Amino acid sequence: MNFKRLKNTFYILLTSVIFGACSGKGTVTIVAEQSTPREKYAVECLSSGLTDAGYQVEVVSGIQETKDRTIMIQQIEKEPADQAISLSEEAYTIESKGNTIWLKATGTSGLLYGCLYLSDELKKNGKLPKTIKLTDQPEMVMRGTCIGLQKTVYLPERHVYEYPYTPESFPWFYDKALWIKYLDMMVENRYNALYLWNGHPFASLVKLADYPYAVEVDDETFEMNKEIFAFLTEEADKRGIWVIQMFYNIIVSKPFAEHHGLKTQDRSRPIIPVIADYTRKSIAAFIENYPNVGLLVTLGEAMNTIEDDVEWFTETIIPGVQDGLKALGIENEPPIVLRGHDTDAGKVMDAALPIYKNLYTMFKYNGESLTTYEPRDSWETNHTVLSSLGSVHISNVHILANLEPFRYGSPDFIQKSVQAMHNIQGANGLHLYPQASYWDWPYTADNTDERLLEMDRDRIWYDAWARYAWNSNRDRNDEIKYWTGELGDFYGCGNEGANILKAYEETGEIAPKLLRTFGISDGNRQTLLLGMFMGQLVNPHKYHVYSNFWTSSGPVKEVLPEYAAKEFKGEAHVGETPPQIIAEVVMHGALAVEAIDKAAPKVGKNKDEFERLKNDVYCYNAFANHFAEKVKAAMLVLNYKYSNDVTDLEAAVLHLEKSMEYFNDLVNLTKDTYLYANSMQTAQRRIPISGVDGTNKTWVEMQPHYQAELENFKRNLNMLKNKGNAGEMQQRKVFEPAQVTILNPAVKRYVLKPGQQVYSDNKAVIEAVAEELQNLSGVQLSDKQQQETGTVLKFRTDKPVKILVGYFNTNSYSVLEPPTLETNANANDRGQADIKIANAMLIPGLYPVNVYNYHYEAGEHELILGKGRALILGFIDGTEEIPIHDAGMTKDEDGPAVDWLFY
Fold first, then answer.
1. Whole-angstrom Cα distance, residue 123 to residue 126?
2. pLDDT at position 24, please?
3. Contacts 24+ apart (CB under 8 A), 729-735
4. For residue 217, pLDDT beyond 50
5. Per-residue pLDDT averaged across 351-370, rounded?
6. Would you give the distance in Å from CA 402 to the centre of its chain?
7. Is 299 helix (H, G, I), strand (E, B) or coil?
8. Mean model confidence pLDDT for the chain
9. Residue 74 has what pLDDT?
10. How far is CA 536 from each of CA 70, 321, 385, 684, rounded to the nearest angstrom?
């Protein structure tokens, strides 16, 4: 060994004696300099492991000569001449030579992980290994979990993401023991990043001389926040963990907004100097006060344009970090992670990399769900564009809206997903959301006397993702043995752990397969495990299927409407099909129940948790059968669209009734065991039904809705059989115009009738319009102006009104995207998130029109829309309810929709 090439070297000498201490295993002397908190923590972990294994431990400093067995731990240079390999900062080598074990690491994290490895071996075997030779390091550079400082509902007089750090909202945030428990879980799994998510955290953590009124908490709370945040970052740093604070842009504190007469967040607002200055100084103060932190930046959702994104990141955020570093007198750049969500991250990074080097990129793995380990289309290309930029790219396992609230822990699915991150997306980092109850952390949705902690209930979730983030290429047979042992030990059932593993892996396929084949969205606006309505299955486009959702989420597939059309026409099918998927999920459910029942008699430990797991398996089985029967009914209803044979509908009734029986089973399995299905209980939840005011979050609540759907179907079928005229079923109320005063100068109106020109500078005219709209008059705007600057409609009303806005059903760059909760958290603040009337107008030369509504109270208002074509179709009474339906104004060769049968 060339000792001249060693830097910051220290030695730990572990001496075993034949006639030892009272423990019977001898005395171990640990000799260490412990020059940093992380090194000291590493020695403490090893010392604790030795003590627990029965050794007597003494810690001293300085080199000690010994003739007995020794372990020497050295921090070495990155590429020493006598090293055959190059080690990362988190790597370590352990090798025995005679009576000596050498542990070498280039960084303090590698030193820590090496000590943890030896400690784990002591726990497993009860003694130090006699011979050992290994080198280990993580495949993924960043391996992080996240916690949301956010709530299940909005705070009074606040908007989405606006949650100051207070004991009232987050009592757990001030619980040091809870933090230590969570951080210990993280370091045991070798996670190295903890992300804290919040819309605008700065006004809870820093005070600014220029903006003293911006602080959102009282003085006592502010001091508590400073103290706990400093404690958290210090404890995390000891464990090799970066604390990374996330925030949205542009959101400002409520008192700051009120002081300046602004909104806290406004997607249509351009960058203004006072907000830029406030944000830059907030970031600088944050870096100055908490130097062991990084930032995660979301430019989307509350920003106006991509150009604003670039300007904000390079002229406000990065300079703010640099100002903070300058104030500290340090040059070491903390990590800044740029989310690719709702922005052009490639364009932003091109502008940012020349001025800041320690940049990372991040994008959602499967959207806000877990659907596949074979991502395609946008879930491939969005990542590869970012991973090709040269910085570390992170794949974000986000929200998991399709997995709430049941337990999920399929090591096989997770391992394949991490492999996909590497091999398909080019990612070298993991960002992991809680498996369930993100908005209600630290608790789960289980209905227990004492609330269960999510970190305890879902331990397999954290263990599995961490295990494969460290090494994704572990042998499958070895992994079956490993997890069989882990589960067998936890439940005290020995080899029956294999059946528990099988139950996890069989149920682990059900929600991903169903969502990617039948879902409306992979976003958090859909709670899959509450089910779907028949109208959503047979006419999904009416509910605004998110762009590229079906093509990106998993293998090539046929969705229900496509499958039904091909089946009726006798055309060949391609890829995954609906009958295939429902057969598979029913099989998965049955096999999972069989496996968990086999394990049950042998369980000797943690019996209460096993019973909860077993109930979840039963829930998945009931849900799979419920959904499969509903899909069978939907296929028959879609076939009726082409066959016009009522016997198709009669057969569908039987399947829908059977589906209801399985759903009733699900109700019985959950009514006493779960508090809710989805932890975000706001109007952002849209599928299967609105979650406004915390409603429709349990299976008990959904039961009457699905029963009514069945009764509606039977009623409409009987009417159809008696009258033989589907058109009579679809007659709808004609809306009368509400009186408003438009304040824009020189604006013209036009009646919604065939032959009318919809734009002042575009010759396109209406060919067909839904009958219920024909008494209304639209606002004739400039096509060119809409595309170049957007739309601002100013008006005054004496009574509440709804503005009907027509969005063009196309992906053309020229049109304005409809309100989309996946990318705009405020997309339902006026009830505008859902299509109300699909295919409401036909305008040759343009595109089919879908109608949305915006609700306004009495007063003077501005409707502000972004750049792109859209139509203002008129005003109706604010109390008027518009049943969601398809008006059928289309030249679709497949004919009109059939979802009217369920209303």
1. 6
2. 54
3. 729/900, 729/901, 730/885, 730/888, 730/900, 732/771, 732/772, 732/883, 732/885, 733/772, 734/771, 734/772, 734/774, 734/775, 735/772, 735/773, 735/775, 735/776, 735/874, 735/876, 735/880
4. yes
5. 96
6. 10
7. strand
8. 91
9. 81
10. 68, 47, 33, 17
Q: Are 193 and 244 in contact (CB under 8 A)?
A: yes
Longest dimension (CA), the chain: 103
Element (H, E) at 307: helix 306-312
The CA R_g of the chain, rounded to the nearest whole Å, is 30
Residue 182 tokens, joined: 């969570």
Q: What is the reported pLDDT for 888?
A: 83
Q: What is the dihedral of CA 182, 184, 188, 192, to 10 degrees?
A: 70
Token representation of residue 202: 């700065």
Nearest to 94 by CA among 139, 42, 129: 129
Gap between the Cα atoms of 17 and 232, Å rounded: 40
Phi-psi region of 98 (alpha: psi -120 to 50; beta: other; left: phi over 0): left
Q: Is the peptide bond before 73 cis (omega within 30 degrees of 0)?
A: no
Q: Are 293 and 336 in contact (CB under 8 A)?
A: no
* Whether 93 contacts 64, CB under 8 Å: no
CA pair distance 802, 832, nearest whole angstrom: 10
Residue from 175, 172, 169 nearest 199 by CA = 169
Query: What is the number of residues in the chain?
Result: 903
- Contact (CB, 8 A) for 444 and 436: yes
Q: DSSP character for 298? A: E
Helix (H, G, I), strand (E, B) or coil at 787: helix
**Contact call for residues 90 and 119 (beta carbons, < 8 A):** no
Q: How far apart are CA 451 and CA 405, in angstroms?
A: 14
Whether residue 32 contacts residue 61, with contact meaning beta carbons closer than 8 Å, is answered with yes
Nearest to 873 by CA among 753, 783, 767, 787: 753
The HSE-up count of residue 779 (CA atoms within 13 Å, CB side) is 27
- Residues 410 and 465: beta-carbon distance below 8 Å: no
How far apart are alpha carbons 893 and 77 in whole angstroms? Answer: 70
Q: What is the residue-wise DSSP string for 190-206?
A: T--EEEEE-S--HHHH-
Closest CA to 540 of 686, 684, 435, 667: 686
pLDDT digits (tens, 9 = 90+) for 674-732: 999 999 998 888 899 989 889 999 999 999 999 999 998 998 898 788 765 444 445 68
**Distance between CA 749 and CA 759 in Å, rounded?**
10
In whole angstroms, give the CA distance from residue 225 to residue 711. 54
Element holding 677 (H helix, E strand): none
Q: Which two tokens stand for residue 289?
A: 């006060």
CA angle 735, 739, 745 (to 5 degrees): 120
State whether residue 616 is helix, strand or coil. Answer: helix
pLDDT in tens, 573-630: 999 999 999 999 999 999 999 999 999 999 999 999 999 999 999 999 999 999 999 9
User: How distant is the alpha carbon of residue 260 from its chain centre?
Assistant: 33
Do residues 383 and 363 touch, judged by C-beta distance below 8 A? yes
Whether 891 shows a pLDDT value over 80: the answer reads no
- DSSP codes joined into one string, 113-170: HHHHHHHHHHHHHSS--SS-EEEE--S-SEEEEEEE---SSPPTT--TT-----TTT-
**CA dihedral over 270, 275, 277, 279, signed as positive or negative:** negative
Closest CA to 685 of 368, 282, 250: 368
Write down the pLDDT at residue 79.
54
In eight-state DSSP terms, residue 634 is H
Please say whether the beta carbons of 77 and 58 come within 8 A: no
8-state DSSP, 658: H
Q: In this structure, what DSSP letter does residue 529 have?
A: G
Q: Reduce the DSSP state of residue 386 to 3 states and report it.
A: helix
Query: 432 phi and psi, to 5 degrees?
Result: -115, 125
